Amino acid sequence: MKSKSMELHKKLSPKNIDCGVITLSDTKSRENEDKDSSGNYIKDKLKEKYNVKLKKIIPDEKDLLLEIINEMINQEIDLIITTGGTGIESRDITIETVENIFDKKIDGFGEIFRLKSYEELGSGALLSRATAGIYKKTIIISMPGSPNAVKTGLKIIIDELNHLVNHAKR
Predict the structure, then answer these.
(1) CB contact set of 19 (below 8 Å; sequence gap of 6+)
(2) Torsions phi, psi of 101, nearest 5?
(3) Rounded to 5, what percent of the chain is helix, strand, coil?
(4) pLDDT in tens, 128-157
(5) Crossing angle, helix 37-47 and helix 147-157, to 10 degrees?
């Protein structure tokens, strides 16, 4: 059942959203964009509806991730999607890094992501970590680096991005 107020909010939401994509990987080369299948998939899907202003590949380093996030925000990016660095190994720093800076957490994304992952993978979904939140009026969404995880995550959010950005900017 659709909500009339939600539909109204969606209609009043901005149509043009400026996006940034950050791939975290210790193995993907920053010089070889072709090997970044997940980051490129995100960029291509976002470009179908929105503006992608920046895309970066960085190693799994907390300070560098924070630097790039702030750089994107300073360039008036409305939405940042990160992929990779979300696992449970010691080098995986994305979830802890972004959740520590959130002004508000958007719990529903991680919850729905894990449900969908469980439906696809079974109990292996316990290893799937994803999160979303607002930092300095910018939406940040972090999802795993596998191509299947990225496809799952984008299915959840792609049609709600205008609505999310509208509320984050208030």
Answers:
(1) 46, 50, 51, 52, 53, 77, 78, 79, 80, 81
(2) -105, -10
(3) 50, 20, 30
(4) 899 999 999 999 999 999 999 999 999 999
(5) 20
Residue 89 amino acid letter: E
The answer on pLDDT for 13 being more than 70 is no
Residues in a beta bridge with 55: 21
Q: What is the total residue count of the chain?
A: 170
In the chain, pLDDT over 70 holds for what percent of residues? 91
Q: Virtual CA dihedral for 20, 113, 162, 2, nearest 10 degrees?
A: 170
- C-alpha span between 140 and 76 (Å, rounded): 13
98, amino acid identity: V
Query: Which H or E run contains 97?
Result: helix 94-101
Beta bridge mates, 140: 80, 133
In contact, 23 and 135? CB cutoff 8 Å? no
User: 4-12 and 161-168 are packed helices; what angle lies between their axes, rounded to 10 degrees?
Assistant: 80
CB 126 within 8 A of CB 87: no
Which CATH code is given to the segment(s) 17-168? 3.40.980.10
How many Å apart are CA 162 and CA 170, to the nearest integer? 13
User: Taking the model in full, what pTM does it have?
Assistant: 0.93
Inter-residue contact 143 to 106 (CB < 8 Å)? no
